[in-house]
Specification:
It is a single chain. 47% of the residues lie in helices and 15% in strands. The protein is an alpha/beta fold and 188 residues long. The two termini are 15 Å apart.
């Protein structure tokens, strides 16, 4: 079946952790601790866990969470292809992430090129739950068999494959150029 839509994971495909990143400020250290508490679907629980386990107040949480996107840089070679790709395919982000950090990600990058941005923290469903893929397909008006899905998690890739999606597993950040070439060969 012909590919009509391309679904991108956010961190591990569209963004990668900055090389040699080391948290230095208190906000960055708080982020490292907050990220250990992420469950990606229940922001209320996340905020309660941050309060209970890290004893951070609302202002400290906001400052820390606002710095999350700063740990990452866009994979520019892929982002530069998006306008050309969008002429031929529907494109969407399917992200496992809390909705608290979402506004800061949207300040860092212009996601308006995408037809759809699906976030687990907003929906209360996360990959690899098949419902998140099926909802994405429904909103895009495509069948799962008409999708290419790219992610750095094997569990998420397997779930997409089980729905009939074509997949590319971005297993190692250092090989992102190879995965990009595999991707461009599929869509050209």
């Amino acid at each position: 079946m012909e590919i009509k839509a391309i679904l991108f994971d956010m961190v591990g495909v569209l963004f990668f952790k900055k090389e040699n990143y080391v948290p230095t400020t208190q906000d960055e250290i708080n982020v490292e601790n907050i990220e250990k508490l992420f469950n990606h679907i229940d922001d209320g629980k996340l905020l309660k866990d941050i309060n209970d386990k890290l004893q951070l107040n609302a202002e400290e949480i906001e400052k820390a969470v606002s710095s999350i996107p700063n740990k990452f840089e866009p994979f520019i070679n892929l982002w530069n292809l998006l306008p050309k790709i969008k002429k031929h395919y529907k494109i969407a982000v399917v992200n496992n992430g809390n909705s608290i950090a979402l506004k800061f990600w949207k300040e860092k990058a212009d996601f308006s090129i995408f037809n759809l941005f699906i976030n687990s923290g907003v929906l209360g469903i996360k990959k690899p739950d098949p419902k998140i893929y099926l909802l994405t397909c429904e909103k895009l008006g495509v069948n799962p068999k008409e999708c290419l899905f790219m992610d750095d998690s094997l569990e998420n890739i397997e779930a997409a494959k089980n729905l009939g999606m074509k997949t590319i597993w971005w297993v190692e950040a250092r090989k992102k150029g190879i995965y990009l070439k595999e991707f461009t060969n599929l869509v050209h």
